[in-house]
Please model this.
Amino acid sequence: MITEISSIVASSKTAYDIAKGLASAYADAKIKERTSELLTILLSVQSDALAVNAKHQELLQDKYNLEKKIMEFEQWSKTKDNYELKELAPGLPAYRRKKMNKSEDSTLWICPYCYDKKQESFLQRECDYETGGFYFCPSCKTPFQWGEIGRGHKMFPRSFK
Ligand SMILES: [Zn+2]
Model:
């Protein structure tokens, strides 16, 4: 379609130049009047072709954006199937990576808030004791804390939202 539109634009430009040349070559008033009409029509055709070309470019961009969204959606669909909603601690939900095989360590957790935004953000473990623990999401900065984390443990060395 781009080729055809470019051809229309080029042809109308050539015709315009020829008609313009005719106008200056002949002194006859009738020829000048008709040539002027022809120039007006050619300008209109050229303008329409440019408008169609611009619309075509816009549609191509829309197509590209939609294909990109579909690809991201398909990718997220595969990624999210690797996780299941569990409790990081009682009352503290997060998504844990499913074991892909028996020997795999399944202690990887991702942030439930980032999960809802179709992002795979691994929770960073600050500390994890039997009495409590503290993780945080490096993307959205949400802290995940529970229980007692032990005396003398320096907490919150970072700034959170
Ligand atoms: Zn997050």
User: Anything to note?
Assistant: The chain has two domains: 2-75, 82-147.
